[in-house]
Design brief:
Largest sheet: none
Structural class: mainly alpha
Order of helices and strands: HHHHH
Number of helices: 5
Number of strands: 0
Low-confidence stretches: 4-14
Distance between the termini: 19 Å
Helix content: 55-70%
Radius of gyration: 13 Å
Shape: elongated
């Protein structure tokens, strides 16, 4: 079930940018995890740049923690 939910989130997320509201309210760990599971390189620099325009700060440590966990999980799915 968890894998299904992750797959749905990935399909809906695409390459969307973050709005000012999302920059302020995002769960950075969850976003990092999603990016890691999807196979993306860390996008923390992209998010930092996007959110700086609205004066919001990215919690880089939480993002990277989630991203590393997502990458590790993805590795367990290899056949």
């Amino acid at each position: 079930m968890r894998l299904f939910l992750i797959a749905c989130a990935l399909a809906l997320s695409g390459c969307a940018t973050l709005s000012a509201e999302e920059c302020r309210t995002t769960d950075w760990n969850r976003l990092g995890y999603r990016d890691g599971v999807s196979g993306s390189q860390s996008l923390v620099g992209k998010y930092t740049q996007e959110c700086a325009a609205s004066g919001a700060k990215v919690d880089e440590a939480r993002y990277l923690e989630g991203w590393r966990d997502g990458v590790a999980y993805k590795r367990t799915l290899r056949f």
